[in-house]
Hints:
Layout (H helix, E strand, L loop, with lengths): L24 H14 L19 H26 L5 E7 L10 E6 L11 H13 L4 E4 L16 H9 L7 E3 L3 H6 L1 H10 L8 E5 L6 E5 L6 E4 L2 E3 L4 H6 L7 E4 L13 E6 L28 E5 L2 E5 L17 E7 L2
Parallel strand pairs: 1-13, 2-3, 3-4, 6-9, 9-10, 10-12
Antiparallel strand pairs: 2-13, 5-6, 7-8, 11-12
Helix pairs in contact: 3-4, 4-6
This protein binds fe (ii) ion (FE2).
Amino acid sequence: MRASFGLLPTKWNVPEIAYRNERSIHDLRANWRAMNEAAPKRTTNEAATPPGRARVTRRRVLAGSAGLIGLSAVATGAYASAIEPQSLVVTRYALNPPGWPAGRKLSMTVIADLHAGGPDMTLTHIRRVADSAGRLKSDLVILLGDYTATYRFVNERIPYAVWAGELARIGAPLGTWAILGNHDWWHNVADVRRALTDAGIPLLENDAVMLGAEGERFWLAGLGDQLAYRLGHGRFRGVDDLPKTLAQVGTDDPVILLAHEPDIFPHVPARVALTLSGHTHGGQIRLPLIWPAFVPSKYGARFAYGHVIEEDRHLIVSGGLGTSFIPARLGVPPEIVHIQLGV
Ligand SMILES: [Fe+2]
């Protein structure tokens, strides 16, 4: 029986969900000003200082505070650039979204934004990622794009065949499947395609394939990249074609959609049980109170990280593994995502 996408939303008729940015640096500054104005004004009373004791002056307090802040900033910077990018966590999700048959078990290991290349994603680190991912023994391995480090800070280049081979050796009974990300398109798309193909990893570009044994079938759909061509001044042209991709879904079996950037999510119909994305790095630098500082999404922090549910539609955004723009992570350690469906 053919599935129907007659009600497939378009970019123009899907109601946007109002998003309230929880806090901004402007709010914090306003709060700080309000607190200062409400506090009683204090003046230094030099005559009250006992003889022989150092006077606590405003200048000394300010100098001490500045020193502490400076030390904290240096320590935080050292942690963000040298320690956290070299860490590795497995983030686990267990869910049964409405579009997925209750009780049908499927496990997936998701690798997003590897950005292979030192200083952060060295060959040693990549091997550790592949070893850890392999130990999860999932039914399916998903690669969500942005395979190489492309910023100016690269100090160790990893041959394409090497990182692709490491990803291929993770292995899974239902295979390893890949999509492309914006950095792949911007810098080396032909080489990335060739590396994945030579490693035996199929690439889904506006394609859908049926996987699973009889009675446990599901569709894996991979979207073309939404930022493939840079047009300048923050404008892009994508190669994504969601209607064409989903038109290939030829049965009523459930659908899992792979999309490098999560910004497609408001346009994904409820027919898709789960959308998987990367790209945001979870903001990459999360400062307390004002995180995430920068999220490459037109929706701000709405799809920055984690499990998002909107109108009963499910999205999981991985914080990824490598770094882009600057070689640092803070509050978003490199992660392998493990998803269990049908729990
Ligand atoms: Fe990306």
